[in-house]
Write a structure and sequence with these properties.
By secondary structure, this protein is mostly beta strands. It is 7% helix and 41% strand. This is Glycosyl hydrolases family 43.
């Protein structure tokens, strides 16, 4: 009974996690939370025309922020606005994970607080280059002849409508400011229709600077009320456009000073939320923290900035997005060092690494991970010129579309580059439905064409139990012969024919000790063949790599006393470091180990699901003077760029 109860609790926990990531059960999220490792603060700086522009700052922890570009504007207001200035920038990551939306007040305060009728809409796919549009409410929609101002627009994705909802405050004549909304068109260049009322407080007094966040199916609208006692309040609803809001009468600001421009964001990999607001008469910001979005505590002593922002918003970003920003606008002088592990963003596992003599680039061929119970059905590859910046080259083999004999469980590929009749060819071995196939291409990025049948479809004679998975292809530099290794619970090997898609020799089993589980990988160095393999189960935090040596690619294997190649470091949150491949830098005795681990920091909390929510890392691999392998140290820092 206890076992059933625990399993149910674990199932519900995993289900809740997937739902929280806004993705269908069984499919990895567009941007896994574990990949959000930094923050972008978008703001303006003051009431002079030259200060009414978009500025950027970045942080790695959500508490310490550094201005980019020496706190100069990153977008020219005169190019994007009708007034020559913009204020109140709000930034949003789109539902696809890779498109960004920014909306701004089109206004210069020097022309008066009732001088603007428009907002600016911006769209980007890289946070650097933006396409802009101006929406003038007064000229676009009849009935707004007495419109005085349009302030502080923001955007939220309305999943129910499948559209982006832009909300903002407007004042008509002598009426109070109210919060309106309209849906953006598909191109995010205009509004689909005239603005409608979103929220009016029961007091009937003015309200501005709305900011909406969703938590557990409830939308929380933080806003500034302009009653006799102005301040930040919150109202909630389960239906964005229903007009049915429950108002909380409590003031949320933790200061007696005047405040405006509240904005809330969730800290990465945390249950904490930060509500911040502009203490505008004092020229500073205040940050407060909460777990329930109702009770907030000031954390002034924990916050540091090397700039003075006005009314902005903060967006959690990935490491690659952070790198893109600093590549464009420079690295702030005191910014913390950026980690390079994991090397791939997203959930990936079982990495096979290749240096291509044809393209002079490095490639990683992983399992596409994050699917429930290892149910992925396609393979991707990633390319790099320096081993730390990786480009997603897309799907290179899709089982349902490209393979006739299997359509499920796309696991653990490997690849070899060989010259055939003077031209480079790429032979890609992969697991599908617990069988092993091979596909061929003229390029390391494909397209790959399947051979039409499984190369390994049955268990080798003498093998007891296990699965026909985890291929590794190795070409002996001494003889030029190529071999395929595979097996789970056993290690099998067979020499390949010159066509690389059939076997030349009979299948042989190589004896290994009881630590062998799967993931064979073979390298050659200074006369010695090194056989590596993974011990334990990929779902186990103790999954690790061991090795043995041989004088032949066919064994027998001698196992050193201390033969761990790499293992986790629990104190650093590093677990399940296994299923590796190894890269030798061409013409150098310089080596690197590529492996997967539980996703950091979330994987260890997932139970067995940690075994299919993995990430790919690279660290240094070194040898002792006697040829034994030094135990590699897995790191968050990773390696430095290879030139």
């Amino acid at each position: 009974m206890k076992k059933i109860k625990f399993s149910l609790v674990l199932f519900l926990a995993i289900l809740n996690l997937l739902q929280a990531q806004n993705t269908p059960a069984g499919a990895p999220p567009v941007i896994p939370g574990k990949d959000l490792t930094a923050y972008l603060f978008v703001y303006f700086t003051g009431n002079r025309v030259e200060e009414e522009a978009v500025h950027y700052a970045v942080s790695t922890d959500g508490y310490h922020y550094h201005a980019l570009y020496n706190d100069k504007a990153v977008i020219d207001s005169k190019v994007i606005s009708s007034t020559g200035g913009v204020r109140d920038p709000h930034i949003l990551r789109g539902d696809d994970g890779k498109t960004f939306y920014m909306v701004l007040t089109d206004m210069t305060s020097s022309k008066g607080w009732d001088s603007n009728r428009a907002m600016v809409l911006l769209k980007s796919t890289d946070l650097v280059n933006w396409k802009s549009s101006i929406v003038n409410i007064q000229t676009a929609f009849p009935g707004n002849e007495n419109l005085k101002r349009v302030w502080a627009p923001q955007t939220i994705y309305d999943a129910k409508a499948g559209k982006y909802l832009i909300y903002f405050s407007m004042q008509h004549g002598s009426e109070a400011d109210k919060i309106y909304y309209a849906y953006a068109n598909k191109e995010f260049t205009a509004l689909e229709g005239a603005p409608k009322l979103l929220f009016v407080p029961k007091s009937g007094k003015a309200c501005i600077d709305g900011d909406i966040i969703e938590k557990d199916g409830v939308y929380h609208l933080f806003y500034k009320t302009e009653t006799e006692s102005p301040g930040i309040k919150v109202a909630t609803t389960t239906d964005l456009t229903s007009g049915k809001w429950t108002e909380n009468d409590n003031y949320l600001q933790q200061t007696k000073e005047s405040v405006e421009g509240s904005s809330i964001f969730k800290l990465n990999n945390s249950d904490d939320y930060i509500l911040m607001y502009d203490v505008y008469k004092k020229g500073k910001y205040q940050f407060t923290r909460s777990t329930d979005l109702e009770n907030f505590k000031a954390i002034d002593d924990e916050i540091a900035m090397d700039f003075k922002p006005r009314h902005g918003t903060i967006l959690p970003i990935t490491r690659s997005e952070l790198k893109r920003l600093v590549a464009k606008w420079g690295m702030p002088a005191k910014f913390p060092k950026i980690n390079n592990n994991p090397v791939l963003e997203g959930y990936y596992a079982d990495p096979d690494i290749l240096y291509s003599n044809k393209t002079k680039k490095y490639y990683i061929y992983p399992t596409s991970d994050g699917f429930n119970d290892w149910s992925g059905n396609y393979f991707k590859t990633f390319s790099s010129e320096n081993l730390i910046d990786w480009k997603d080259e897309g799907v290179i083999l899709d089982l349902p579309k490209d393979v006739s004999w299997a359509n499920r469980n796309a696991w653990a590929p490997c690849i070899v580059e060989k010259k055939v009749k003077g031209k480079y060819k790429y032979f890609y071995y992969f697991t599908a439905a617990q069988k092993i196939g091979v596909a061929v291409s003229d390029s390391p990025t494909g397209p790959f064409k399947d051979s039409g049948k499984a190369l390994v479809a049955t268990k080798p004679e003498g093998a007891k139990g296990g699965q026909e998975i985890d291929p590794d292809v190795f070409t002996d530099p001494k003889t030029g012969k190529s071999y395929l290794y595979w097996g789970n619970g056993y290690m099998a090997v067979a020499e390949l024919n010159d066509d690389m898609i059939s076997f030349k020799s009979d299948i042989k089993l190589i004896k290994v000790d009881k630590t062998f589980r799967e993931g064979t990988y073979v390298i050659y160095r200074k006369g010695t063949y090194y056989f590596m393999w993974s011990e334990d189960d990929t779902r186990s935090p103790n999954y690790k790599v061991r090795y043995g040596t041989s004088k032949s690619p066919l064994g027998p294997i001698e196992i050193p006393e201390n033969n761990i190649v790499i293992q986790g470091i629990p104190d650093q949150g590093i677990y399940a470091t296994g299923h590796n491949s190894v890269l030798q830098i061409p013409d150098k005795d310089e080596w690197y180990i590529t492996y997967h681990r539980f996703s950091y920091p979330t994987g260890i909390k997932m139970g067995r699901a940690g075994g299919f929510h993995r990430e790919v890392c690279i660290d240094k691999l070194e040898f002792n003077p006697d040829g034994t392998i030094k135990e590699a140290i897995p790191t968050h820092t990773g390696i430095q760029a290879i030139k």
